[in-house]
């Protein structure tokens, strides 16, 4: 014969602490203690009871391994396993949803990474082109400075030439005028 606790619905085993109320109902000691914290009545018949009225029960169970479980205990195990299976299936569904959500987020982030890397690549190409343009402009500027220096030298040369020419012309004019005055 199999006896189960009316509170937790589990079978009583030789290793369990078992107790009963004055009305005679049998429970796991821990289950009944928990129940009495909420309500001071028997969980089955609702007769008033207290911790002092509980009686410990020490049952002798048969150690015969050949005893076939009855249909109630087997149904109890099936029910427990079905509940556990439903919980596992629910957990699996939640984890599958989370997995799909995470995969979608990963795909979205990979797309963003690709876009950012593409922008970085484009920006690096533009920077490289602009660095090349800067080098060209620096070279052009250097050439213009050199040409400017050469032109300054030419201007100085021509200024000297013009100055000398003016001086020479003034000299000739002075010489000619002085010879003209001498003739006159």
Structure in words:
There is one protein chain. With 184 residues, this protein is mostly helical. It folds into 2 domains: 1-61, 2-Layer Sandwich (Herpes Virus-1), CATH 3.30.40; 69-183. 67% of the residues lie in helices and 5% in strands. The chain is built from 2 helices and 3 strands; from the N terminus they run ββαβα. It has a 3-stranded antiparallel beta sheet. A hairpin with a 5-residue loop joins strand 1 (18-20) and strand 2. The radius of gyration is 55 Å and the shape is rod-shaped. The mean pLDDT is 88.
Please summarize what this structure is.
InterPro entries: TRAIP_ubiq-protein_ligase, Znf_RING, Znf_RING/FYVE/PHD. Keywords: Coiled coil, Membrane, Metal-binding, Transmembrane, Transmembrane helix, Zinc, Zinc-finger. The protein is mostly helical and 184 residues long.
